[in-house]
Request: fold
Amino acid sequence: MVIKNKLPRKDYRWMFLLITIMILTSAFTLLDAFVIPKSYVVVSQESIEALNSNTQPEPAGTENIDQALLNSVEKIQTDIENSLLEEEKTEVIITDHSYTDENISINIEVFDENGIVFYVADIQISDVSYFKTAFANDSYGKNITQTTSAMAQANNAIFAINGDYYGFRDTGLIIRNGVLYRDISSKTSEDYSLTVDSVGSLEIVDTNEVDGSSLIEAGIVQSFTFGPTLVINGQVFATQDTSVSQKANPRTAIGQISPLHYIFIVVDGRSDESLGMTLTQLANEFVKRGVTVAYNLDGGGSAAMWFNGSLINNPSDGHYYGERNISDIIYIGY
Reply:
């Protein structure tokens, strides 16, 4: 009897299953990588447009917020446009003898006629607030002095002339920038002062008949006491009754064509280059330019005109002592 050995039969089913799984896994991996679409975040068309415009997508129920943001953006745009317009309006044009911006216009002419050198500034301002005065060292008092140039620079003036040298006297009506500092009449028969009111109009007042407090209540913002009056109602008013008025001298004076439109004149004198003017000659220069009222200020060695950082004229004291120290200035500026 012959006995045969039986070998165990191998089961390949698990192998086929494993191979099948591997094939399917590989196929899925390939499909997942290159074929099957997958979305992580759903992005709407509105969100895409918002992203492209560097804004956030519009959540539901935010209409009020969006309107507020829109209003804000429109306001910013308006502010920018207004700022650009303001820059255009505030453009400043400056030359050697002129200055122009939206509020101030200054034009200075230099004349050399018949041995007389003088300087005429035609000035127009939009408001009396640009017509200013300053004291030496910013102090009201006696024997407090500075040059016109120093005061002009200290106050950021555009244009300046010497004032009435109030500190040289103990009498006179002194109102500066709306403040009453002195109201003491000289008690003479002709004690006239020049005033500037709140609308920029010049007027001659008799200080024997008015008082400073009432002038302040009436809106007077500046006053000057020196004189004499040169022009009234467009006619020469200056007299030749004193040796000072009859003699040619350096002069400073101010006149008005109309409120906020002024003529400032400074005359060189006491030199080989310029003789100076009599008061009548000075008054005539104002009348020729259509001035209705004009008033003489401190002259002589004090006469000075300053513009845009430099002294324009040649003060008579400059030949020997340099620019004279005085009590106050009238200036145009901000």
Remarks:
- DSSP finds seven helices and 21 strands in the chain.
- The chain has one domain: 93-333.
